[in-house]
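Q: I'm writing a short methods note and want an example of a predicted protein-small molecule complex. Could you take the sequence and the SMILES for LM24SWP5 and return the bound structure as tokens? Please keep the output block clean; save any remarks for afterwards.
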Amino acid sequence: MKWEIQGMHEVKHFINGEFVGSKSGKTFPNISPATGQQIGVVHEAGREEVDQAVQAAQDALKGEWGYLPVAERMALLHKVADGINARFDEFLEAECLDTGKPGSLARHVDIPRGAANFKIFADLVKNVPTESFMLDTPDGQGALNYAVRQPKGVIAVISPWNLPLLLMTWKVGPALACGNTVVVKPSEETPSTTTLLGEVMNDAGVPKGVFNVVHGFGPNSAGEYLTTNKAIDGITFTGETRTGSAILKATADNITHVSFELGGKNPALIFADCDMEAALEGTLRSAFANCGQVCLGTERVYVERPIFDEFLARLKQGVENMKLGAWDDPTTSMGPLISKEHQQKVLSYYEKAVEEGANVVTGGGMPEMPGDLAGGSWVQPTIWTGLSEDASVVKEEIFGPCCHVAPFDSEEEVIAKANDTDYGLAAAVWTSDLARAHRVAAQVEAGIVWVNSWFLRDLRTPFGGMKASGIGREGGVHSLEFYTELKNVCIKL
Ligand SMILES: NC(=O)C1=CN([C@@H]2O[C@H](COP(=O)(O)OP(=O)(O)OC[C@H]3O[C@@H](n4cnc5c(N)ncnc54)[C@H](O)[C@@H]3O)[C@@H](O)[C@H]2O)C=CC1
Ligand SMILES: O=C(O)/C=C/C=C(\O)C(=O)O
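A: Understood, no commentary inside the block.
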């Protein structure tokens, strides 16, 4: 990225089409999770910068953006997607430096989805109808009702650090497609790609104030100032369930609309009749991809008893074949955790598992990393067996490269175990019995059930969680439900 301060890259807010620093001069370091070294400085927004960003977003709604014909708005969003693709390698490097994730992962998942999130919603908005009804009236003339969608207004987008560009654009894409303006607060851990998107917005010709970015933390910082701002019309948030709860409390006075995608403690249900290769490959990805930092990831693996030993042995082998390393090493399959703080959290679960009587099948500690990587927040990918269903690592979201594997004997038993959680985000079912697949999918309490796959995403489908895993659904027309106000017009004829 082209901006620099004292030889380090400097990340500023993006307000009303311009990169600006904080008036207070307050900054915080951007730390590489791979090395523990500082790679940049980030401006921390005070209330003043947040208010300015919200004001810019409000003004933009009343300006050119608010009057733009739909076709022109959609053309602009296609230009934004093209702009991401044109600067693919810059986005890739920025994302990988902030997160430490393998370049191969970001190349195939994060950056392409960043562009796709704009295209898919630009195309969708043009084609989704609204309803109309003719009403009989006593005078025989009738009345015509028709519904129209209008932008909700200024949307606050609060995004996490695990899939920074993907999850931020998953919200910004539909919000802008629906004609809203946005103020984004990316995670303090991963400020870079959201900021780079500001340049792409300007280059694409998106009017000033439509896309704004403020940096900072949650409480007593940019997150709190944004969620308590009266002019915010909707908040879309992905992150931890406890943070969702804090945001909900902060919005109570203003009755701000929210859409939340929160944590998970997702099960994989692996039946003896499954395609073993596919189930192994899928579970290795669902439990360990992105160093286990995916809210849809599997942390509880249930395997039908006849194949338990073989599955476990092969899963162990798969994990032990994983190579931890630098993002730009093509042989790397796993990066570090996002921060030292998160590393401490995950390691505390590794200790708890042992205290609670787990059999550590593989991993369970910190790896020795060479050179600069020795200072990073690395943990070993880990598998446990032998714990009861109420053990901490079986109950609580860890968000690390680890899973507990347990045997089961019947469909009824495994469904009960899968549902014995406060969460309800995702589940993966592995079976070659189609009738069983339908039966189990119907009974598992999760917003997304994958059968013989994981993370296979059609962006037109409803996406979100049951129970403590979220409020509402986004994806396809469901995004339109959140990002627009549906107004009924009744015309007496
Ligand atoms: N998608 C998911 O399910 C995710 C789950 N997590 C879990 O959450 C744990 C904590 O990670 P964090 O990055 O701290 O997640 P978080 O949920 O605290 O952070 C997500 C976003 O919310 C913001 N935020 C935090 N507190 C806020 C507040 N009171 N008001 C407004 N915004 C606020 C953060 O600055 C960040 O942009 C992780 O250890 C992991 O277990 C983290 C990220 C994503
Ligand atoms: O939208 C997707 O495809 C992925 C979503 C993943 C998360 O929300 C997460 O890991 O936090």
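A: Remarks, as requested: The pocket of LM24SWP5 (ligand 2) is lined by residues 160, 162-163, 167, 170, 238, 261, 294-296, 457, 463 (CB under 6 Å). Residues 423 and 468 are 5 Å apart (CA to CA).
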